[in-house]
Each structure stands twice: as C-alpha cells, then as structure tokens.
Design brief:
Layout lengths: L3 E6 L5 H10 L3 E7 L3 H10 L4 E3 L2 H5 L6 E4 L6 H10 L3 E5 L6 H14 L3 E4 L6 H12 L5 E11 L8 H17 L5 E7 L9 E8 L3 E8 L1 E13 L3 E5 L7 E11 L13 E10 L8 H14 L8 H19 L5 E2 L1
Parallel strand pairs: 1-2, 1-4, 2-3, 4-5, 5-6, 7-10
Antiparallel strand pairs: 7-11, 8-9, 8-15, 9-10, 11-12, 12-13, 13-14
C-alpha cells in the first residue's frame, strides 16, 4: 500500500507531536511543515533535517506531492485553511474544534463529500483507551440507565485569548459525551465569567440535556489551583469515575446505587413516603491497556484515508460538537438562558 505524504500547518505547541507520530507510522511521512514563526521552523529543521519548511501554508496546500494536510493552528484559521486544502484535493486533519461556526463546519463537510476527500477532526479523547473502555461499560448495560455525567477540566492556565475556556476545554467533554451516548445534546444552559480578559470567559459551567433524560454538566476553568481531568458517570445500577491524571488506573467502578421503594398499599404523595435503599458494594479498578491517544488518533486518520467509514471523529461529528459549543456560548451571552440545539 502506498505511503501517505503529509504536510503539517502549524509547528507550535501541538505540531511537533503530530509530526513525531505521523513519522513514526510506516504508512506515512511528513515531507513539509509550515509556520509563520521562523524560530519554530528552525527547531523543526534541527530535529528533522529531511523535512522541508516554509512560512507559507499555501506552499503545502498547493504541493502536488502532498496527499494530506494536518492543520494545527489557531481556531480562527481552521475554516479557510481546511477549505483551501480540500479544494486542492487534499485529505484534511483539523485539530479541534473544526471551525468557529456551524455554517463553516457544514460547508467543509459538504465540500469533503463532493470532492471525495476525508475530513477528520482531532477529538483526541475518543481515541483514549480509558474513554473507550467507559463506552463499553455504558453500552453493556452494566451501569444501568445513565442518570447524569459530570466533567471537571481545570488548571491554572494556559490562558488563551483567541477562544474562551469552553471552546478550548469543553470541546473535549462534548466530544466524549457524544461518543459515549451515541447522540448529540438537545439543549444547554451555561454561565461563566471573564476575570482576566473582557469577552473571553476563563471559567464556564455548562449543563447539557441529552435524549433519554440524561443530564451532563461541564466545569472548565483556567483559574484553578489544581489540574483536574475527571468525569463521573452515575448510572441506575453502578457508578464510574474516569481520571485522566491517574495514569496507571484511570477508571474506578463503584458498585453503588440508590433505589426508592414505594409501599404497595399506601398512597404516597411526599418523598418521605418512599423508602430509600442505599446499596454500597465494592469498588473495582479494572485493568486498562493504556495507549498513547495521539498516536492512536494519527493512526485512525491514516486508516480513514483508506476507509472513510472507520472514523470516530469525522466532519459530521466535529460539526455536532461545534453546534453544542455555539449554543452554550449563546446561553453564556444571555446569562444562562436555556438554548435548544
């Protein structure tokens, strides 16, 4: 099978990791990298002498020797770069989020379909072994019906000025929720505040309602003394916690539940009329075969180029995430008003 040649646009914080992973796969090779900062290109050249560098993204996009373009640039640039790459016949990998508006996302999806090109979004957590294991627990029914999911994603920085904390961090959680539940949210209410930069929320609380009466909540912040990457799933039968900071044991399964028993021959019109039964069983730490999510994501992109239907984060799924974030932003502006998707 022929090797896939790749051009990477953006050699900042994430770009070098993408270059390393694609070059580690025998099915692909990075032949050109672009960035507007010459100092970054110098570092790339020092590490990879065989890779051509340029300050102009167009040189990658219009290079006939390049099969696929990887875009790792600020969110505001994603749409134009991805559009141009597709129009020039390239398969496209875009770091999350896909674009800044739903219209832009839908335009890219339609363009990719019309040109028979792959549009892939870098929702890295759906390629995380722990996240994939949680999906199996949910699908198997071991947790029972899902009541709610709560996510905490906080740290002291890094502070962004181009997008707020929801765009920066919350996109991860929405992509995870959509992946786990197999559906997109129906409505959202969000509140937040701009403590550091006007009009850029550095702290956000967003509550999404999903089909089957499932509630999800996201807390994202750049202003927190502790780095937390944690999601709690509360089910009818069992509960589960995924902790990305626990490298060895990211999942804990709690055999805990609450049932409400209604007396059969009595009319009950108050909560006290029910008998609450709390069951607390064992806590299990399942063994997870850990992986490097970015390597798995890069492998998935290369597979999608050959088998488009295999993608867990195609343009349509990327659009669903952007739609959810856009709606939450509207709610933020309107101080928590519930917004339908």
């Amino acid at each position: 099978m022929e090797e896939i040649t790749i051009g990477v646009i953006g050699a900042g914080r994430w770009g070098p990791n993408l270059i390393r992973n694609f070059n580690s796969d025998p099915r692909a090779t990075v032949i050109m990298v672009s960035d507007k900062l010459s100092a970054r290109l110098k570092l790339i050249k020092e590490r990879h002498s065989d890779i051509a560098v340029t300050e102009f993204a167009e040189e990658i996009i219009k290079n006939p020797k390049i099969d696929a373009v990887v875009i790792s640039t600020p969110t505001s640039t994603h749409f134009e770069l991805a559009k141009m790459a597709l129009q020039n016949g390239k398969h496209v990998f875009v770091e999350k989020p896909l674009a800044t508006t739903v219209d832009e996302c839908e335009t890219l999806v339609k363009l990719a379909v019309s040109l028979n090109r792959v549009l892939f979004v870098g929702h890295i957590f759906v390629y995380n072994a722990g996240i994939q294991a949680v999906k199996k627990y949910i699908q198997s029914g071991e947790l029972g019906s899902i009541h709610y999911i709560h996510s905490t994603r906080t740290n002291l920085g890094p502070i962004r000025t181009d997008v707020n904390a929801l765009w920066d961090l919350g996109t991860h959680d929405v992509s995870i929720f959509n992946y786990w539940l197999g559906e997109a949210p129906l409505k959202v209410s969000a509140i937040g505040n701009c403590f550091l930069n006007p009009k850029v929320e550095d702290v956000v609380f967003a509550t999404y309602s999903y089909p089957k009466n499932i509630l999800t909540n996201i807390h994202v912040s750049w202003l927190n003394p502790k780095k937390v990457r944690e999601i709690v799933v509360v089910g009818e039968k069992k509960m589960l916690m995924w902790d990305d900071m626990d490298i060895q044991n990211p999942i804990r399964l709690y055999d805990k539940k609450v049932t409400l028993d209604k007396p059969e021959d009595t009319m009950v019109d108050t909560f006290i009329g029910f008998r609450a039964s709390i069951y607390e069983g064992d806590t299990t730490i399942p063994k997870i075969s850990l992986n490097e999510p970015l390597a798995a994501e890069c492998t998935a992109f290369l597979k999608a180029v050959r088998e488009p239907s295999s993608s867990l984060s195609d343009g349509i799924k990327g659009t669903e995430v952007v739609k959810a974030i856009v709606a939450a932003n509207r709610s933020l502006i309107e101080r928590g008003r519930e917004v339908s998707l």
